[in-house]
Amino acid sequence: MQDPRHTFRLYGHVKAENTFRSALDTGRMHHAWLITGPSGIGKATLSFHLARILLKGEKTDSPAGRRITAGTHGDLLEISRSLDEKKGRLRQEITASDVRVVQSFLHHTATEGGWRVVIVDGAEFLNRFAANALLKILEEPPLNSILFLTTSSPGKLLPTIRSRCRTLALSPLNDQDMHDLLPDLSADLIRRAKGSPGRALFLSQDRDGHIAGFVDGILSGRRINTESMVLIDQIAREVDGFALFCDLLGEGWAEQARVAAQRGDLPISNMFANRCIALDTLRRQTEGFNLDKAQAIRQAVQLAV
């Protein structure tokens, strides 16, 4: 999949696009839109698609279209978690200094006489100071300005931010759209991705299935042996091995919690739910403080004991 700025065809989110176009055509345009949905479903891609509509850049070979693609359009600003160059990974937060750029941007006259558009990609990562700064913008939005906030976890946003946005809740892509977008991926992988193209590509990194197989063993209660210890070190060395391991294990425990709850076994359901919480905490601490991933995987395995 391409960078959202360079993705020109929209898959699966026609209903959301039509809702937005209707607001624009009827003169009932809201100043802020909260675009929600699972990770990897195409929230940022939709944001740029809607920005192209506002900025008359739908034709990719038009002057406005080319500037949007190149990141040089004077009326479009995107903020997200920046890269920590020392650690070589994304920072854990969007900070107040990032939002101050938005404040400055919106208080200048539009360079092309139309809308000014801001995309906040990953609004759940706004820290407290950044969230409060953004809230002030939402409370007193400048004329002819539109903000798109994307998030996979709307519950992590301030209620006052959510209340000042119109929500576009994206649904998973259907199988046909997934196959059209990702023709080289297997039907099984697409099924496991549950309508999320980004997740499908993430899962495809486990090319020989050894991470999924290891996780399946944990979920079925298999005990760690010497061979498992070697595999743990291998997973930890892979670029996204730790993240994929945590994602698959958390998903498995969440499913076990759901199944137990459906059959009325609340103690077992709570046990698996607590494992999910503990795993999430372990993952955030490991990635946030750049801790030993192999050790973290071993700790995760111990949660199942």
UniProtKB/TrEMBL annotation:
Keyword Calcium: no
Gene Ontology terms: cellular component: DNA polymerase III complex
GO biological process: DNA-templated DNA replication
EC number: 2.7.7.7
InterPro entries reported in the protein's UniProt record: DNA_Rep/Repair_Clamp_Loader, P-loop_NTPase
Pfam families for this protein: DNA_pol3_delta2
GO MF, one annotated term: DNA-directed DNA polymerase activity
Keywords assigned by UniProt, alphabetized: Nucleotidyltransferase, Transferase
Coiled coil: none
Enzyme superclass (EC): transferase
NCBIfam families found in the cross-reference section: PRK07471.1
Designated name of the protein: DNA polymerase III subunit delta
Species per Swiss-Prot/TrEMBL record: Swingsia samuiensis
